[in-house]
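[job 4471] stage=fold_predict status=RUNNING
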Amino acid sequence: MRQLKLAVLGMVDGNGHPYSWSAIFNGYNPQIMEECPYPGIPRYLEKEPKEKLQIPGACITHIWTDKREEAEHVAQCSLIPNVVERPEDVIGQVDGVLITTDIGFEHVERCRPFVEAGVPVFVDKPLTDNECDLKQFSRWVRDGARIMSSSCMRYCKEFMPYRASIHELGELRFSSVTTFKSWERYGIHALESIYPILGPGFISAQNSGTKERNIVLFKHRIHGDVVVAAIEDMYGAFGLLQLCGTKGNAAAALQDTFYSFKAQLEAFVSYLQTGELPFPFSETEELMRMLIAGTRSREEGGRVVMLEEITAD
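[job 4471] inference complete, writing structure tokens
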């Protein structure tokens, strides 16, 4: 297959994906990458053997970010040949775009020019954080737009054994998963950690916390109670998973961020090559309902919010 050309578009505070994702495709300049404002990125990149770092079959050829100077720096770090003045400038130049921002209410407008031009889009998590925009994304997909969105935690290798089978645990009665930072931007990391294990069937959400300390109880049709915690400063507990059943229990923690990022991006490249989504878009819709329900419950004093209240179309 020919080499796919991709564009990286957008950068917001607290999200260094333009640096790391571009390096996973293109390789990087180690000396300049040391100047990256996210010091964890050069540390996990340097652990990877050079022959295993990059994704074959695709490269980042264009970049635009909200601040031109940031795009210039990412381009130097991650060997991107073209910095463009406007995101729309990449239309006709690339085979797909990566929207590398994680503020959900911005994503419809960031995606719109590419959806309307028929360019495939990968949207960083969360796809959206509100019902109105979820309806728009669902309409676009229904009408044939090629849109994919996920958290890298869907591909966490430490959780893969439980995606394959939870039979030995018996019937699940309680599960939990944790993250730091905000519910609106990072809650999806926790949700998408556990969703591929339990599968569709979430019924309701009840958030008994605050904007800085979200404790959300979900009810699942088959697998009982699921508690998801997103606490602003809980940096010591990103990606902790617990599964408790009638016959056994299991616990696991994210260890290899690079693996999750690379596997996520490989899934998008495979989608571009084959036209087949790696998972149904209906899963993304349900995850967005869960995220929105958690916010709505918190804002309404801890009310139990039924997911069926939130329509995707």
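[job 4471] summary: Residues 281-299 form the longest helix (19 residues).
[job 4471] exit 0
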